[in-house]
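notes to self, project folder thing:

trying the whole complex as one job this time. last attempt i did each chain seperately and stitching them together was a nightmare. two parts in total, labels are on each line so i dont mix them up again. if this works i'll redo the older ones the same way
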Amino acid sequence: MHNVLLTNYVFPNDMHVHWSMMIALYPYITGIVAGAFIISSLYHVFGIESLKPISRFSLIFALAFLICATLPLLLHLGHPERNLYMFITPNPSSAMAGFGYIYATYGVVLFLEILLIYRPVLTRLQANTKGLIKLIYTVLTLGSDNLSPRALAMDNKLISFLASVGIPMACVLHGYVGFIFGGVKAHPTWSTPLMPVIFLLSACVSGIAGIILTYVLIKTIKGKYIDMDCLRTCVKYLAGFIIIDFVFEMLEMFSHYYLKTQNHHMVAKLWSDSLFNTFWIGQVFLFSVIPIFLLGCLAFFKIKDNLYKFFAGFISLLLLLQVAFMRWNVVIGGQLLSKSSRGFTVYHPDMFGREGIFVAILVLCAPLLVLFILGKIFPFWIEPENKPI
Amino acid sequence: MKKKNQTPDLKRRAFMEKILKGTIAGSVFLVIPAGPLICKIPEQIKGIRGNKYEMTSKKFAFIVDITSCIGCGSCCVADKREYNVPDHNYRTWVERYIKDYDDKVYVDSPNGALDGYHGPRKDIKKPIRDTFFVPKLCNMCKEPSCVQVCPVGATFKTPDGFVLIDKKHCVGCGYCIQACPYSARFLNPETNSADKCTWCYHRVRKGLVPACVNACPTGARQFGDLNDKNSNVFKKLNGPGVISVLKKEMGNQPALYYQGLRREVI
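result (full assembly):
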């Protein structure tokens, strides 16, 4: 607009980055929930049989992350003790007010689906265990041991219904998170209708990548059989989602450059200066272009199973980082540009504070710990594990 | 010759500094009694004291005349004293705009102008064509983004047009801070709730103008009821002067108006 804009004046209240790393972690974790649920639904609703071996694991994986999704929010709130006000006095005009209801309803749907899918397994385990663990299984089966064909047929109907309802709910859960940012007109890098779409697609990428990485890691560490058909199908879906996701991310960036809207000089400068390493080097080159190239290699060349497993895990790791960098660039990056449109602030995360780096690492580890505990109650895998590796 | 020229300059500067310090001290003195003695101060907004307060009958407006602001910072000091605003957070601040002959604009607001602008910026080597000051505060939007996004309804709009915060209900999520196009909000580190300028609602309800308006030595800050046709704000808004609002394209419809607003101001 003017060459006059570039004199680095930041509004006094914009010096501090109000939404910290915790708010970058929150969409990261809910995204993994939504993506993992999609994998499960591909089998339970759309009948993609090759995904059967991980259909249960992906649900437990989603639950583990869902249980921890509120952690970063509670750590961020100025008054975490008032969090239930979101339920009690919701403001209908606020996108954020929907959080409590969407989160709770989705949690109920996911948990019910897990209980029904696992009912035969849990009933069997209830009969064969003792002590506290038996009590847990009794509670989880609601004391019912009815495994008659009629009861199981009823279960299947309910499972199909819950999984079908779960898909739009997972989309709403994460699309809504994107809208939280996309609906802020005061931030030029957030305010785009593409934001919910990008968040949803990146959610699918991180969820599927998370499933692939943990599947390959757990099976490899335990020396157990990896279903190659299942793995290859997952990788194909991962490739599809990252390509569409990356296209939308680049479309959003390109629109700023091409449309030359009001703040485009500042947005361009944000990406080329403050976010050069995390956006261009990290999100775009290292963690998008390279994994898409590798995914192309996996698709077009015949690759031995062992090498395929390695690359599937490696690409998944890169794509998990891609989504983490994307969250950082959107949440933290968007706030670096002052609403004065004349300057940038700098984000200095604490090391040991309530919203610091150390706590962020703990928050990221928490779902894995929950997954480990859930794994002691819900067996992850369906297929017999005595096949050769 | 040089010496002769310097002496009056220095004297003038010293004189100006004394005037500014006096203004700040004076404004602080005026603000300190605002507490239990608030009702003893003569009424500044007519028709409020002694009458039943009809919220819907008032339409308050705030006008900042940037052609009158001298950047003394009295308003900021008055505001900080009125509310004990924690350091590095600002309910109001004053920006200094400097323009050179290449149309390059330099903006700053060191410490939100709490110390006033006593001297020229030393980092600008080019000849300066123009300079002016722009006070900023809550825009009390008619379509406030902060009220729209607050998830728990802790930020609300009163029938008489004030956007206020119930700090005992605020969860401290910071969504309103992100949504405000004017960066008028901050998270108060002492209450852990969102905070911002209220146009001194507690004073207005007692017939007094906001503390910053009271402290302004040049009348650059004006406040009043637009339904009162004798008020200064009514006359200014309906007069021939150039009056505009900040970030009109945001669609928030501020009730904070700027007289003589320049295109450089964002």
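what i see at first glance: The first strand of chain B starts at residue 60 and ends at 65.
need to look closer tmrw
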